[in-house]
Specification:
By secondary structure, the protein is an all-alpha fold. It has a domain of 48 residues. The protein has four helices and no strands. The longest helix has 31 residues.
Length: 99
């Protein structure tokens, strides 16, 4: 059964049936989005406590966070249309036991 035939079949149903179907479809989609949202928090919960406390230390005020997010979104959109900046790679020295 194609999507168009399913929609045509729903159009022939009474209004209360159409509203019920619309409710359950929207409930299902919302539940899927909610599960992905909830899953993002579970992945954050597996991080080490030091990493989370380091991130909290670097967060400023809510206004600074909002401005940084808006700036990041602007840069992302600009890179989408005009291409990303040139990336230069530099060697990294890894010294065990030091941060």
């Amino acid at each position: 059964m194609s999507l168009l035939s399913h929609i045509e079949n729903l159009r022939s149903k009474p209004e209360h049936v159409r509203k019920a179907v619309a409710f359950w479809y929207s409930f299902g989609f919302t539940a899927i989005i909610f599960m992905f949202w909830l899953g993002s928090f579970t992945s954050l919960g597996t991080a080490t406590k030091g990493t989370i406390s380091d991130a909290v230390d670097h967060v400023g005020t809510p206004a600074e966070s909002l401005v940084a997010t808006a700036g990041s979104a602007y840069e992302g959109i600009k890179d989408l249309f005009f291409g990303p900046k040139e990336i230069k790679y530099a060697p990294v020295d890894a010294i065990p036991g030091k941060r």
